[in-house]
Write a structure and sequence with these properties.
heterodimer; A: about 300 residues; mainly alpha; 12 helices; B: about 325 residues; 8-stranded mixed beta sheet; 3-stranded antiparallel beta sheet; disordered N terminus
Chain lengths: ~300, ~325
């Protein structure tokens, strides 16, 4: 046609358009709040990972004489807890537990939930009914209640906490995955792929997942903070991590009575939970904005 | 394509029992000759898009037969179907929903080739060549995403995707309805050029009579899932027989001041296709409705060699014949 012919003769200066993922990266790199959240998160994860080397004391070794030392006490930068254990060391070690308890269930839920949800949405019919109604049974209970019930039945311990939290989060992810799949499935480009003779596997791989995994990933990332809080809550109730292991929720629980003696030290694990979940929330917000397709 | 019929079940209630059937396409029969452009025209909701999907076996008909080169498409095995799909392609109506937002347009066009086992480099090369042919310089647009293009450009991608498998039949489902008038003309001309160049056969679906008249050799007028009239484009434009076709032509604005609309062509909305009127489906809005229209649906009767109409106005009263 005339237009392309004219362009063909002129020396074409091709400004390479950015690929989708490069655009996403560029947007993330220019989003200050997200960068900050990411930085904070990186610090928290790093400090948790390096706890064995960073922690000045053994997290479970206490000293009766030094109970509830205030923040800034000599030798104990963040004070000590009700058994005289160093708070900084316990917070560092506790971060490992809390992060594992926060991230693992969401990761499990992302994989299982995306699989089940996409299958339910794409196959439809009786498969959809079976999967979705089963999920509804779990969904009918409030998250906290369900987590407590399952943990209570399984007994305390980190592994059981992970199992019960995974069960809490799978149905949520399935729902999002299913509705995203149903929505995308009805779009004409899926019909076009079918008309071109593509099989189910090719369609799901190239046309469906690419458009569905983004929203599922963003949704899952919003659940991380909830998972951290729930895990902490379970420990608080004595259903999660068992003492003397350090975990932020558990620390909050054991320090609860000491709040009248020293208000700052018992608030520290709570602050840690707050900052971590906040950072996860901001990061997932940023991710959502960056992954949005703008026309 | 014979006696094509699609009834959609309308489900509801807790137990998902079928409560009613939407008669989207009801006993539509027609043939398309190679190299021909068959226009399909009708109001929105009359089953045009359903027809397109039935032709390509994207949905299965409840009754009837689609034959391509004499071969029953419904009877084709999975592998045979895959081969058949290369011969018949569809251009979609919505230039926004019909392109995958995560694929570059080059990959969008090349995808069909990859599905049929073309090596990646060759597929890409052919996709780029075809993009150039439909008026999108592959160096400028090949690596772009659909959302970076205008509606007309997207529709060109849509056309390129349909053509990349070298089909013989192209079903165009309202290919220009979503575009501006000026862009419509460009895309229509492109389609006409491509047709001549590649000896294509078109089934061109539209609600726009001007467009249909411009591109079609023969026209099929649909009303509520049924064919009410078929004939050559000229015959229909000059002497529409069915009251519905007449009303359609009367309702398209005329450039000639002597041919102003003197009466309102048709009033009201089409009846519900879940529960269509008995007998002739158009009778509820027809100015010439007679008592017998309610009794039995009229058959398509020839008024000339190439012109058929389903209306009792053109069918002799059986009593009169006896």
């Amino acid at each position: 046609m005339a237009i392309s012919a004219a362009l063909g003769e002129a020396p074409v200066v091709v400004a390479a358009p950015m690929s989708y993922w490069r655009t996403v990266r560029w947007r993330l790199a220019h989003d200050r709040a997200t960068l900050l959240a990411g930085g904070v998160l990186a610090l928290i994860v790093l400090s948790a990972l390096l706890a064995p080397w960073l922690a000045p004391y053994d997290p479970s070794a206490g000293s009766i004489r030094l109970r509830l030392a205030p923040v800034g006490a000599p030798g104990h930068v963040l004070g000590t807890d009700e058994q005289g254990r160093d708070m900084l060391s316990r917070l560092l070690w506790g971060g490992r537990m809390t992060l594992v308890a926060g991230l693992t269930p969401v990761l499990v839920a992302f994989v299982l939930g995306a699989g089940l949800g996409v299958a339910a949405g794409y196959v439809g019919g009786i498969t959809n009914t079976l999967i979705m109604r089963t999920m509804d049974i779990f969904y009918a209970f409030p998250a906290v209640l369900l987590a407590i019930a399952i943990s209570g039945a399984l007994g305390p311990g980190l592994a059981n906490t992970l199992i019960s939290l995974s069960i809490v989060f799978v149905p949520r992810v399935v729902r999002v995955a299913e509705s995203a799949t149903v929505q995308v499935k009805s779009l004409e480009y899926i019909a076009a792929a079918r008309a071109s003779g593509a099989g189910v596997r090719a369609i799901v791989r190239h046309h469906l997942l690419a458009n569905v995994l983004g929203p599922i990933l963003v949704f899952s990332s919003t659940q991380v903070s909830l998972s951290i809080i729930l895990a902490a809550g379970l420990s608080f109730l004595g259903l999660g991590v068992t003492p003397p292991a350090a975990e932020w929720g558990l620390m909050l629980n054991t320090l609860r009575q000491s709040i009248y003696v020293n208000a700052v030290v018992p608030a520290l694990p709570g602050l840690a939970i707050f900052v971590t979940s906040m950072a996860f929330n901001l990061l997932s917000d940023g991710l959502r904005d960056a992954m949005e397709i703008r026309g | 394509m014979l006696g094509l019929r699609k009834h959609f079940p309308l489900r509801g209630g807790v137990l998902q029992r079928t409560q009613a059937w939407v008669r989207a396409v009801d006993g539509v029969s027609f043939e398309v000759a190679p190299g021909e452009t068959l226009g399909v025209v009708g109001e929105s909701g009359c089953g045009k898009s359903t027809l397109a999907r039935l032709l390509l076996r994207l949905i299965e008909p409840d009754a009837g037969r689609v034959a391509f080169d004499g071969e029953d498409v419904r009877a084709a095995s999975a592998s045979r179907m895959k081969r058949l799909r290369r011969d018949m392609q569809l251009v979609f109506q919505d230039p926004y929903a019909s392109l995958n937002p995560r694929l570059t347009i080059e990959d969008t066009v090349a995808f069909s080739l990859l599905v049929h086992g073309t090596p990646r480099a060759e597929a890409r090369e052919r996709a780029r060549a075809l993009l150039g042919r439909v008026g999108l310089d592959p160096r400028l647009y090949g690596r772009r995403y659909a959302h970076e293009l205008s509606g007309g450009q997207r529709q060109r991608v849509n056309i390129a995707r349909a053509l990349v498998l070298d089909p013989r039949l192209l079903v165009l489902d309202e290919p220009v309805s979503a575009l501006d008038k000026s862009v419509q003309a460009q895309v229509l001309n492109l389609l006409q050029d491509l047709k001549a160049e590649r000896a294509l056969t078109y089934v061109f679906i539209s609600h726009d009579l001007n467009v249909i008249e411009y591109v079609s050799d023969r026209v099929l007028v649909m009303y509520l899932g049924e064919v009410v009239e078929t004939g050559t484009a000229e015959a229909l434009a000059q002497a529409p027989k069915h009251p519905y076709t007449q009303a359609l032509f009367a309702s398209s604005p005329s450039m000639d001041p002597d041919h102003r609309m003197d009466r309102l062509p048709i009033v009201g909305d089409p009846p519900n296709s879940i529960d269509p009127p008995s007998g002739c489906r158009f009778r509820t809005r027809c100015p010439f409705a007679m008592p017998r229209c309610a009794e039995k649906p009229p058959r398509l009767v020839p008024v000339s060699v190439t012109h058929e109409v389903a209306c009792y106005l053109y069918e002799a009263e059986p009593a009169a014949l006896a």
